[in-house]
Amino acid sequence: METVTLSLDEAYALAYHALSSNGFSEQHAAVIAQNVTAGERDGCASHGLWRLLGIVDTLRKGKVSADALPTVISQAPAIVKADAHGAYSLLAFEQALPLLIEKTRQCGIAALAINRCVHFSALFADVEPLTDAGLVALATTPSHAWVAPAGGTQPLFGTNPIAFGWPRGDQHPFIFDMATSAAARGEIQLHHRAGKAIPEGWGIDSEGNATTDPQAVLEGAMLTFGGHKGSALAAMVELLAGPLIGDMTSAESLAWDNGAGGLPYGGELILALDPTRFLGEDASAHLVRAETLFSGMQAQGARLPGERRYLSRLNSEKQGVAITQSLYDDIRALSA
Ligand code: PYC
Fold first, then answer.
1. Same domain for 122 and 138?
2. What is the count of structural domains for the chain?
3. Where in the sequence is the signal peptide annotated (predicted)?
4. What does the pLDDT look like over 213-233, one tens digit per residue?
């Protein structure tokens, strides 16, 4: 397959141009371009440059604001609320982050609820600034009703990712970011784009039959990972980042979309915990025990979550990122 290699600066410029030429304000274009470049850089193609197609398409469908400025408020001693006013979540996250960190340092634990945001981005990017600040973090968001609950065949849950991060001083943080569906929807869409079958277990067709045809799953239902366990976690995400923060469930988001085919609309919940407030003077002694756990995993040949991402980051910083010629052309065509 023909590919185009871009430095990270070129990838950012490509993304920024596609966004700003379609009407996104400078601030939104900058944070979105940075996010999709980071996804590509970290080897996460489903949340990389390819996302620009859906991001712009959602704007053209009138399902996201190109320029709304977020409102950030202190809702309670340990709760920050950021209203994205119908724009993508990333600017609201960026503007609310300092207050979330401040409250976490004050209270030991704090939450950020982002409301009324359109969401497409990988959650590891929202967790990493918190681990960089020495905090433990957890982020989650519903999406559109694309995933059947275990035992059912009709889409009800979103792909409902959960990202968790643990700071490790001067080492890369321990961060996992996983959909509670067997795969991200973006993975299935990328298989469809490449004309490839998907692995068994990712989804069912609209009659409820198992299939490896990505199109049939996109029109049918995705499945949760781990059967009823993934299904329970998916329900938890609906509750925490839906009704708890006064925002939409995945079913409500899909109903709001009303067949337009835009990206999910609703809320995101981010929790941050400060180990030094939990542990006081004993903090470093306990944090060292986390390292014993990590080396115990590695001693058995297990990879720590995030390791592949950091390796890919290092390679991309040196060699740039390679995308298919057809994706490059499609992104360029967004600005035509
Ligand atoms: O790829 O799972 C996904 C996804 C979630 C929200 C938009 N896309």
1. yes
2. 2
3. none
4. 999 999 999 999 999 999 999
